[in-house]
């Protein structure tokens, strides 16, 4: 697993295209005019990370709802944001979602399958790239996952 110089914009655009085909009932918003952003990253790991976030956004929101993917380049870092307007995560459970095998109470009763591993893998990938990941969520309103990693100068 070698790092390479990657255009994160192109990679995200390609994954969005793929997820638009499998989440047929959702609408995935993505600005096709997002400028290229170069990072040093392991391609397969970033594909997996984006897949984890889009899979969750799709699983925990209603068909027909909107999922938004954005890439925002700052001076040193680029931020990848995936937001949904789904069921959200109760405040008291939010601190635990990055734990291995943790699944929220409501999730355990409503969505039978799932390992609770996705977000812990996502965090490992992000931290291996000197990045940070955070989740903001409002129960009944939606969830926003935000990943930040250094831009390659
Ligand atoms: P798997 O990794 O097998 O898909 P999972 O989705 O349960 O299982 P994680 O991705 O680690 O595992 O997520 C942990 C828990 O965090 C989920 O079970 C769910 O309760 C909550 N969660 C994650 N993403 C969202 C989201 N977008 N909206 C609401 N809840 C979420």
From TrEMBL:
Domain Histidine kinase: 1-153
Superkingdom as given in the UniProt entry: Bacteria
Localization annotation: Cell membrane
Protein name (Swiss-Prot/TrEMBL): histidine kinase
Positions spanned in the full protein: 299 to 451 of 451
